[in-house]
Design a protein that fits this description.
single chain; Rossmann fold; Alpha-Beta Plaits; 2 domains; seven-stranded mixed β-sheet; four-stranded antiparallel β-sheet; binds ribulose-5-phosphate
């Protein structure tokens, strides 16, 4: 099975976690694209979806799935999204696709966060995947210097602007032993919009596509 087949397997298994109706939170990325395609087949059961990015919004609209504003939707029962890395506590690194800010908002506004990924995303220690940090453009160099003090090696993701009009620093060479602590430290830097560590609001369920079939991990 190739990586896409494993992603599709995890995405299709997430359908089981959806409520009977209402509004579903939808993340961003190649794994979520498989989820959107599966969700489209049963879209009639739901009022619609809240999207975490312009790209997921476009894909859902092409499928005829109504995309609703989070302010009008209120609390969501379920949010389904991918991850770049997860540890066994379901602390995540996210933001490889640059959608981390809206993803964190929709995750925070949801009762249950179902994370879907292929099994290569499960790690013992977060940080091999460069940690994305969304920054206000004028703060890019300042935040980069502060991230060096925290032990990282930030690299500006050039020619990329987030859906919110901001920039991304990808922080290499971190070994994240205390994800919640580092999330707080980076959040406190002036000019940081969002750090791609999801530890204060981890996933509730991780579904991993594997050669033996979908595996479910709960913290
Ligand atoms: C986007 C994300 C994605 O969930 C993450 O990058 C995983 O993507 P993929 O499913 O393509 O591996 O956080 O900002």
């Amino acid at each position: 099975m190739n990586a896409d087949e494993l992603k599709r397997q995890a995405a299709e298994a997430a359908i089981e976690y959806l409520p009977d109706g209402g509004i579903v939170g939808v993340g961003t990325g190649s794994t979520v694209n498989f989820f959107i395609d599966a969700f489209a087949k049963i879209k009639g059961r739901f009022e619609g979806a809240v999207s975490s990015s312009e790209s997921s919004t476009d894909r859902m609209k092409k499928h005829g799935i109504p995309v609703l504003d989070l302010n009008a939707a209120g609390q969501l029962d379920v949010y389904v999204d991918g991850a770049d890395e997860s540890n066994r506590h379901l602390h995540l690194i996210k933001g490889g696709g640059g959608a981390l800010t809206r993803e964190k908002i929709v995750a925070a506004a949801s009762k249950t966060f179902v994370c879907i990924a292929d099994e290569s995303k499960l790690v013992d220690i977060l940080g091999k995947f460069p940690l994305p940090v969304e920054v206000i453009p004028m703060a890019r160099s300042y935040v980069a210097r502060e991230l060096v003090k925290l032990g990282g090696n930030p690299v500006w993701r050039e020619n990329f602007v987030t859906d919110n009009g901001n920039l991304i620093l990808d922080v290499h060479d971190l070994e994240i032993m205390e994800p919640a602590k580092l999330e707080t430290q980076i959040n406190q830097l002036a000019g940081v919009v969002t750090v791609g560590i999801f530890a204060h609001r981890p996933a509730d369920v991780l579904i991993l596509g594997s050669r033996e079939g979908p595996k479910t991990i709960k913290p």
